[in-house]
Design a protein that fits this description.
Layout: H1 2-17, H2 25-54, E1 62-66, H3 72-78, E2 86-91, H4 94-104, E3 111-116, H5 119-124, E4 131-137, H6 145-155, E5 156-167, H7 173-185, H8 202-209, E6 214-225, H9 231-240, H10 256-269, E7 277-287
Parallel strand pairs: 1-2, 1-4, 2-3, 4-5
Antiparallel strand pairs: 5-7, 6-7
Helix pairs in contact: 1-7, 2-3, 2-4, 7-10, 9-10
This protein binds S-adenosylmethionine.
Residues 25-26, 29, 48, 67-70, 72-73, 90-93, 96, 118-119, 137-139, 142, 242 line the site of S-adenosylmethionine.
Length: 288
């Protein structure tokens, strides 16, 4: 534990040296768009579907979905909506949104619109009390949570729903520790700072989002272990699933192959299997 803390301190020192120059999440997601569903979606997709099933919807809602990506949640929610419902899917990555459009933009079922841009800009444009639900799967880590809460409270009509699922700070902890170990040993690998705002746990989501007009309906923590056979599969998962988005762009491009190779070697060299485990939290809340 102490070793890890020392490592984190060193890692933070490396980060501070490049603070202000943040990695480009959009670029990493554009690159992961074609493989995202086969990796992230393959395993966490069923967790997203279970989350979608638990959102209290009647079927006629006006919905804003933030960080909608390739549309796993969009599809799952649309199945529960009637034709008179309306969902707007927002995402910063054109590549991710294009995959979503191909799946959900066919004109059957509820009306689905696509909005390319920043999620906080999209919600800020909405009128007061104009929405029945704001949804976000695996994207809230990219937003300022206080700004999001203020906007959600403003745009939801009374009785409206906020539903969030997100990785926790401790997600993929063992793999992240190996990433950090490599960067501390070779600070030249890192050229930009990483800005990701993951929640501690479900308790954090309740405290952050239910301090004003929103009341908790339900919240919980969950875990999903990603199976793999070899260190190269861990490298592949981190590269193609989007799980390293916001991190890959932070690596000096000239060293990216070297970094990934060294990472794979490090995973292979561990005495025990390195857990590839997502830890996540869910919040379902309602405006009073
Ligand atoms: C892990 S993916 C989740 C995608 C989808 N919701 C799902 O369940 O598979 C995160 C998404 O957040 C998007 N994103 C990141 N920052 C964003 C921002 N500021 N505004 C809108 N979308 C953003 C990324 O482009 C990416 O598609």
């Amino acid at each position: 534990m102490k070793a890890l803390n020392t490592l984190r301190l060193a890692f933070n020192t490396v980060r501070w040296n490049i603070s202000g120059n943040f990695a480009d999440v959009q670029r990493d997601y554009d690159q992961a768009a074609s493989t995202y569903d086969s990796y992230y979606g393959r395993y966490l997709g069923s967790i997203t579907d279970q989350f979608a099933d638990k959102i209290p919807l009647k079927g006629q809602e006006r919905i804003l979905e933030l960080a909608a990506g390739t549309g796993r949640l969009t599809s799952a929610v649309c199945k529960r909506l009637k034709p008179e419902a309306h969902l707007t899917a927002v995402d910063l990555s054109e590549g991710m949104l294009a995959v979503n459009k191909a799946k959900n933009g066919h004109g059957e079922g509820p009306r689905v619109d696509f909005w390319h841009g920043d999620a906080l800009d999209a919600i800020t444009e909405r009128s007061n009390e104009s929405l029945d639900a704001v949804l976000c799967a695996w994207g809230v880590c990219y937003f300022n949570h206080d700004t999001l809460r203020t906007q959600v409270e403003r745009v939801l009509r009374p009785g409206g729903i906020l539903a969030i699922i997100e990785n926790r700070k401790c997600t993929l902890a063992e793999v992240s520790a190996l990433f950090e170990q490599l960067i501390v040993s070779q600070p030249r690998y890192l050229r930009k700072a990483i800005k990701i705002n993951l929640p501690e746990d479900a308790g954090y989501l309740v405290k952050k989002f239910c301090q004003g007009q929103l009341e908790q309906i339900n919240s919980w923590n969950g875990t999903l272990d990603i199976p793999y056979e070899s260190a190269s599969e861990v490298r592949e998962y981190m590269l193609k699933s989007g799980a390293s988005a916001g991190f890959l762009d932070a690596i000096e491009p000239a060293y990216l192959d070297e970094f990934l190779h060294a990472f794979e070697q490090l995973v292979a060299a561990q005495k025990k299997r390195v857990p590839l485990t997502h830890q996540f939290s869910v919040l379902l809340a309602q405006k009073a």
